[in-house]
Design brief:
Layout (H helix, E strand, L loop, with lengths): L18 E10 L2 E11 L4 E5 L6 H8 L7 E6 L2 E2 L4 H5 L2 E4 L11 H12 L5 H7 L15 H12 L6 E5 L7 H16 L3 E5 L3 H7 L2 E6 L2 E6 L1 H10 L13 H9 L8 H24 L1
Length: about 290
Amino acid sequence: MTVVERPVAVDGGVAEPVIRVEGLRKRYGERVAVDGVSFSVQPGEVLGILGPNGAGKTTTVEILEGLRSADEGVASVAGVDVLRDPDAVKGLIGVQLQASSFFDQLSLAELLELLGAIFGVAVDARALLRRVDLEDRAGSQVAELSGGQQQRFAVAAALVNEPSILFLDEPTTGLDPQARRHMWELVASFRDEGTTIVLTTHSMEEAELLCDRVAIMDAGRIVALDRPAALVDALLARGFRRVRAEREATLEDVFLDLYGHGLRDGDAAADQDAAGASGRGRGRGRGRRGRR
């Protein structure tokens, strides 16, 4: 499957928003992490939340997920007042965290079945794993997976309760170009099925490709909110021009040409062996320099 940008943005005036945020504020002592944030998300929309580290992205999203309290404002998700009843929203949404922890003695299928029991729903573990191209690893443990596989399993875990809203926290961080593009295709498939998605990312390419709109945060505030193309057009209208024209190909294109676009999953053991060999080599190098 090829990921394509949705040609027409979601019409913000057609339906009631499934996520509504007004005047949201959160402080940690003297530091204001979220400073009067307001936005809404329509059913089936993909909203990207961008910004540098410390901009307030994670705190904002964690409040919407019912994981963190707010000091002021309104936050409604799927009709639930998250500030008054944070537990009620947790069964209605799916959450993929950038770093997830799972019971290390259970297989992938067993973990999904356990999560289903927690949510009180019947789970077809193999069907969920098939959705993220991990059916052949159903009997494996999380520690035996590569980084890309672990991220895809975290997405499968977020789908257990069949949520209509997904929160994805930097789902492609640390992935190689093949695994990253495969994750984009997976997210695009959710988008095309009408799932509402809130995506935090540091990848501008990812945001342009997947998001209907992006909210750019800085110092706890939203400083820009619009369609990616509209934000780019506004920048060009102010006279911006690139100093250097883009080349027709990039180093990533070279990588994909050499290895192909198909997904190549390694495993954690191979990654650890490689890291160990590299570490042993660095250790010997330090020893030699120390004796000089």
